Amino acid sequence: MAEQHDRRFCLPGQLDMKQILLEAQYRWLRPIEICQILQNYKQFQIAPEPANKPPSGSLFLFNKKVLRYFRKDGHNWRKRGDGKTVKEAHEKLKAGRVDVLHCYYAHGEQDESFQRRTYWMLEE
After folding, report:
1. Tens digits of residue pLDDT in 63-114
2. Which of 105, 82, 83, 85 is nearest to 93 (CA)?
């Protein structure tokens, strides 16, 4: 039953993928838009390695099972108290009333408003 809800919320009628990718350059995407991208990942190029210091608004798809260090992008992210590991916040995002996504985000060390967000689908 929950699987049907996931499909219903993640596969909306007609989301314009080109428009979503354009808007991703200047606003945060909604969970339903992220689901649409992740569920249609075969339409996109999977990045073989992280970009070096990608600019704000960049969007990349990685296979985290193949590319272990996909977060190593050259930016300086705020560290935890130990001064070594990146401080990331973890959230689950909903589409409708159903949890569908993991979201990890980190803040830039020099610029608090610069963020990296990492998403992947929740699994049953």
Report:
1. 988 998 999 999 999 999 999 999 999 999 998 889 999 999 999 999 989 9
2. 105
Please state, as a whole number, how many other Cβ atoms lie within 10 Å of the Cβ of residue 101: 19
Percent of residues in the chain assigned helix, strand, coil, to nearest 5: 25, 25, 50
Cβ atoms of residues 29 and 20 within 8 Å: yes
Percent of the chain at pLDDT above 90?
68
- Read off φ and ψ for residue 117, nearest 5 degrees: -120, 135
Closest among 23, 75, 32, 71 to 53, alpha carbons compared: 75
Alpha-carbon separation of residue 58 from 1, 82, 96, 116 (angstroms): 35, 29, 26, 10
Which tokens hold the place of 80? 């935890």
3-class SS of residue 108: strand
